[in-house]
Structures are given as structure tokens and as C-alpha cells.
Amino acid sequence: MAPSHLSVREMREDEKPLVLEMLKAGVKDTENRVALHALTRPPALLLLAAASSGLRFVLASFALALLLPVFLAVAAMKLGLRARWGSLPPPGGLGGPWVAVRGSGDVCGVLALAPGTGAGDGARVTRLSVSRWHRRRGVGRRLLAFAESRARAWAGGMGEPRARLVVPVAVAAWGVAGMLEGCGYQAERSWGCMGYTLVREFSKEL
């Protein structure tokens, strides 16, 4: 499917359940990789080992004492990711959410934007997900181009001297990171836990 066969418009209310399922599926595709990346870092392994050692004095089962901290850590991380990226944000100053629609009317992607938290921060992508059946067909790039045009229009309307777009990416989402770098974005900063990166932020001056 070529990008020219795609259009982007605001999400209709009747499309909300479909869009929510798309967001949840997108998070599910990366959450296991993010959890594996985070929980195999040395500090996390030490904390899990300490928790297991403590539980051995409480639980009769060695296997349960070993597995319970891992299960709880993975569950907490997945719930956090789903709460952050697996739901629709409230409407923001940049409008939306928007959906990418194929010529036949099939919704194949979703995008949401929000203003940055400070002056000069520009706009931020808060949701960007493509249906697994439409990936690697230009949908993500089409949504990104639309986000850039909205960010420029919003910056001009706010009297900002420059337009800027920031896109947060989970550390395990190598495909998205590669797409952004191919579109001229640069990794700017990152955040995570215990000194290890879980999310990288890519930005571009527009």
C-alpha cells in the first residue's frame, strides 16, 4: 500500500473501540521486550535476587520464592506501559486523536499529539501506533508527516519562533527508532530506571 493511498483525519467516536484495540496491540508487541531488557540489567537482577532470598524465609516453596518477584516485576512494568501508551489521551491543544485511513475506509493507524511542557519544547507525539497488518507500508511515515505539519501550524499559531516535534520511543522498538532516524530525527535524551534506559526521545527541528 503506497502512502498516496492513505488519508489522515480525526477519529470518529464509533472508531474509538477499534483504535483502543490497536493501541493495546501495539503495546503488547513491545512490552515483553522492554520487560526483558529492564529485568536483565545487573541492578534489577540484584534486587530480584534479594527479594527471592527474603521470600525464602516466608514461603515454603523455593521455586515460588524465585518466581514471584519476577512475576510481580513483569506485571507492574506491563501495567505501567499499558497505562501510558495503551489508552487514548484526552483531547489536547493540538486536536485529535487522528487516524490513518486506507482508501477503502479501513483504519490502519492512530496518532495523538500534545504541547510540550515548557516554552520552546514544541509538540510531542503521545500516541503513534500502526495496525500489525499494515506495518512497513508507509503508514507510520504518513502519520509522522501529518504530525510534523500539525506541529508547524500549532507553533505558528502560538507565535513560537521555531517548530519542533518530540517522539518518545520504547528502547525495544528498534523499527520505530530506525524510521525516525531515516526521517531526520535525532536521539535527544532518555529516561528509565536505575541508570538504564527504557525510553528514548527523538526530536526534529521543523
From TrEMBL:
SUPFAM superfamilies attached to this UniProt entry: Acyl-CoA N-acyltransferases (Nat)
Q: What's one Pfam family here?
A: Acetyltransf_1
Record carries keyword Phosphoprotein? no
Record-annotated N-acetyltransferase domain positions: 55-206
Q: Which GO terms describe its molecular function?
A: N-acetyltransferase activity
- InterPro entries from the UniProt entry: Acyl_CoA_acyltransferase (IPR016181), GNAT_dom (IPR000182), NAT_camello-type (IPR050769)
- Claim: Membrane is one of the keywords in the record: yes
- Could you list the residue ranges that cross the membrane? 55-77
Q: Which UniProt keywords apply?
A: Acyltransferase, Membrane, Transferase, Transmembrane, Transmembrane helix
Tell where it localizes. Answer: Membrane
Task: Tell me which GO cellular component terms the UniProt record holds.
Answer: membrane
Q: Which PANTHER family match?
A: GNAT FAMILY N-ACETYLTRANSFERASE, N-ACETYLTRANSFERASE 14-RELATED
- Entry function: Probable acetyltransferase.
Family stated for the protein in its record: Belongs to the camello family.
**Which protein are we looking at?**
Probable N-acetyltransferase 14
Taxonomic lineage of the native organism: Eukaryota, Metazoa, Chordata, Craniata, Vertebrata
